[in-house]
Design brief:
Elements: H1 23-31, E1 37-41, H2 48-55, H3 59-64, E2 80-84, E3 99-101, H4 108-115, H5 119-125, E4 140-142, E5 157-161, H6 168-175, H7 179-184, E6 200-204
Antiparallel strand pairs: 1-2, 3-4, 5-6
Helix pairs in contact: 4-5
Amino acid sequence: MVSKKYVDEEMNENEEILPEQDIYEHDYKKEKHKRKLLNIVVRSGDTLFFFAQTFGVSVEEILQVNPGIIDPDVIFPGQIVRIPARPLIGPDPEFARAQYLVRPSDSLFLIAQMFGLTVDLLIQENPQIVDPNLIHPGQVINLTVTPPLPPKPPKGTIQLYVSVGETLTSIAQRIGVSVQAIIAANPQIEDPNLIFVGQIINVPLS
């Protein structure tokens, strides 16, 4: 079951940025008049080169805002990759910690099934979508994020969006790390045997 959704509050334009504030909100404020930072959840088969070509940026620019990526040729399904770009087409979804790049033949129903969400949750997260039955390839939509959030990931640690059926053990096996390493990187997880759809977790690669 998905718990109460996490609501991001946009920072006031004149609000002072403190060192301990969330890096995403910091970068969002910093880049909002230049390039927007997207947080795209990786699908099977995606590559950094694909994202670079799709959004019109370089792989090097993507790596600059993703210090957790150790090998540019290796990204994992469910991984959140930050893209220093704006969506290809509107409407603009605004800032979210987990977002999805719409592909050909996608629908809100299929996307909801993919992650274990509901269409109603996706509609709730995307008030910019006028007709829920009409989304387009290249559009970026926001995904439901379930709290609590993890701490800021250090270098060499990626963030992963939990989908239906996943456990810390299945994630550890898929990424090739130990369960204990994931637990140590996620002090917000009270019960390692219980994670939720839409949760974001840190996964150390080094």
